[in-house]
What does this fold into?
Amino acid sequence: MKLAHTSDARGLPLSGIDAKGAEQFEAMITDSYYYRIGVQDRLDALLLEHPEFVLGHVFRGYSLMTDGLTSSHPKAAAHLQLAQKAAATPRERLHQEALRAWLAPAPRERGLAFEQILANWPLDLLAFRQHTGTLFWMGNKRHQAQIASCAASHWDATIPGHALFLSAYAFAMEEVGQYPEAERAARAALAHHAEDLWALHALAHVLEMQDRRREGVELLQQAATFLNNYNLFRGHLWWHLAMFKYAQGAYDEILQLVDREIYPKSSGFYLDIQNAASLLLRLELQGVAVGTERWERIAQASLQTATQNTIWFTTVHHVLALLRTGRRAAVEEALAYARAQGTAGSDQARLAEQISRAVVAHEQGEPRHALDVLLALRQDFPLLGASHVQQDLYSHIMVDSALQLDDWPRIRQLLKERRTVRIWSPASLDAFNALAPGIDALRTKAQVGAELRLEQAA
It folds into this structure.
């Protein structure tokens, strides 16, 4: 077998594909990172036509792994085997190694393979987007930002895919508090393509972290005109709109969004489960009756996926839905699965089990045990991945546990602690110092509820 003398849009060699196929693949990469519908069917058809297309098989494997379910692993492994049988360049072999390590699972080795690619071929958009995405779910925000920063000098507006680089770069910058830079990059990506969901996502996070909720509502209500033209990731943008509505106390609107856009029917997609369960719990902790039917929709999906989950931040959300619908045996199965994976060496699974058991204690009227465990673990919460906004669910549970114990010193401490996540500049430090005395003066549950919505920042 000979290597094909074909290159992608950035001049990187591709094996097992002709020039026409390379153009089709570039379009698929673009559409995938814009979250357009139907990419995988088109890729499957391309692989039937070009069965030795190495990066096509690798990309299909990556896509299957990002499902977050072990049931997708055999198909991903099959594509890896097909890729390994074909002639490949050194860069393509490193992609194969990344997929092999992902399946192992060996996250450190996967990261090293991606980093070797980016060190030698910094314009490899596939490696960049996959690596920053996996680092996010491993909780490595600082490293995610380092990877993005190191690659940035190699990209400019003349390079195909530059806007797709910018949207991922923007989110990486946001998660380490570089809000002005994140906003600049996100808006530049949106200037290239106004419907770039990942750039919208990065900008929504900036607005959330800077308490610019009116701008956030306006941004996402404008996006509402096209969101449903895209794949399941659209639900997370609807979730962000609901979170801005949460800050405004617009609970009825949130429930309408849950029923119409965020979780209208049972879905096993991990983000859908996270989005819906976290919203329902936040509302319940504010005293809103959300009903059992909404939890039941989530629980039906959790029954199918909780013991196949590989995105460990999802575990708590599975457990919440199963608890709310009285499925204690299924809760124990989910926890046993996490424990088994933890015993096998997954630090994330071990932490997910510990947090989830504390959540079970909270839901079963054991606030002291729940609070003690979560307090001891809270510095490790970021290891499960997810954004600062998503991780804030843990703070809600801890504060509610402290409220049940009437532990006002701890309540005030936790409320101030969650505010510090937003301190990244002299201006945000000044804002925190201005708010802290008000938090120290809180005396009622209603005041705590307002602070959990960050109402004081309005």
In short: The chain is about 70% helix and 0% strand. The longest strand covers residues 6-7. The chain has a mean pLDDT of 96. The domain at 1-139 is CATH 1.25.40 (Serine Threonine Protein Phosphatase 5, Tetratricopeptide repeat).
